[in-house]
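Hi there,

I know you've been waiting on this one. I reran it after we fixed the sequence typo, so this is the corrected version. Both the input and the resulting structure follow.
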Amino acid sequence: MYCKINLQEYLVKTRCGMVSVAVFGDQDKPALVTYPDLALNHISCFQGLFFSPEVNSFLLHNFCIYHISPPGHEVGAAPIGSDDLMPSVDDLADQVLEVLNFFGLGAVMCMGVTAGAYVLTLFAMKYRQRVLGLILVSPLCRAPSWTEWLLNKVMSNLLYFYGMCGVVKELLLKRYFSQEVRGSVEESESDIVQACRRLLDERQSINVQQFLEAMNGRRDLSEGLRKLHCRSLIFVGENSPFHSEALHMTSKLDRRYSALVEVDSKC
């Protein structure tokens, strides 16, 4: 099982601060780099995938996995200091490069979820020779709409003044899970939603706010996607709030190198 595989954790010093990287597997194997969504880390974002025996066996047989956490999102992270520079999305993409250089990695496979998918896509566009392929789940590639920008500003202010309060947790859970998984008045929440709710309580709100602000300042990558010639596989749920974004991104990628998988919301 994934949880029994030897894990090594590193703190990598970058130009924009320290970055936590959890490494699973044999470092002589090809590298798979992961980047999670907002307020998540490798445990809360990817453990469901890696606890699948079939997926776990395939990935660890073929890859060494390098889980990069957004700044201050690792387990036990301290609050980011008020004097520390708030990284932009370009800074976050550059941190990925610095992590690769730290471990002496060449070209790698990348797997990102939503905000993490944006960071890795931007990384692939800036450093094309360092990316063999992209696996993107519910990805973002455009600048935030006015609606998203305003919602993110509300959430940012709530995080700043009230921390990881109930409203913020509900907004994040709607971002991560479909209505079927979240449950309803008649149906209780699934175990995975309850576990994620508990994990969100462990996040440092100021750290989450900084990542959120970076993502709220992101630019549109659409025009550069056609020049991206690494293999790209996009997954999105049929009822995902990011469904239209995934369709747009797929339409902008070169069809010779990309594919879209739409997942049934009941799965």
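Quick highlight: The chain has a mean pLDDT of 91.

Best,
R. S.
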